[in-house]
Amino acid sequence: MFAFSSPSGTDGGPSLITSFIPILLIFVIFYFLLIRPQQKKQRQHQTMVSSLRKGDRIVTNGGVYGTVVDVKEHIIVLRISEDVKIELVKSAVATVIEKRED
Q1: What pTM does this model have?
Q2: Under CATH, which number does the domain 16-98 receive?
Q3: Given the DSSP bridges, would you call strands 75-79 and 57-60 parallel, antiparallel or unpaired?
Q4: Where are the alpha helices (DSSP H) in 1-102?
Q5: pLDDT, tens digit, for every residue of 29-41?
Q6: Domain locations in the chain?
């Protein structure tokens, strides 16, 4: 009657470790395809923002072109026209078009 039961008393199904391997594999794939590249891009943006200086030409996330007039701790003053200056948070800078050469 019980001739087909396993001798150790287990049902012969997959072990707990082998059932977590696919989930672990998915996490590793997501890390290398999504998380790691995003962290690298964020570090590059932080480096670019921290190296802003007077005279740099930039583009903001909103598409505004201008020249950096003043750099403060978290804010930059951007000249977008002869008599028009605006203050922006440094993180609003999308890219640096032209670095000022010393």
Answers
A1: 0.70
A2: 2.30.30
A3: unpaired
A4: 16-30, 36-50
A5: 999 999 999 999 9
A6: 16-98
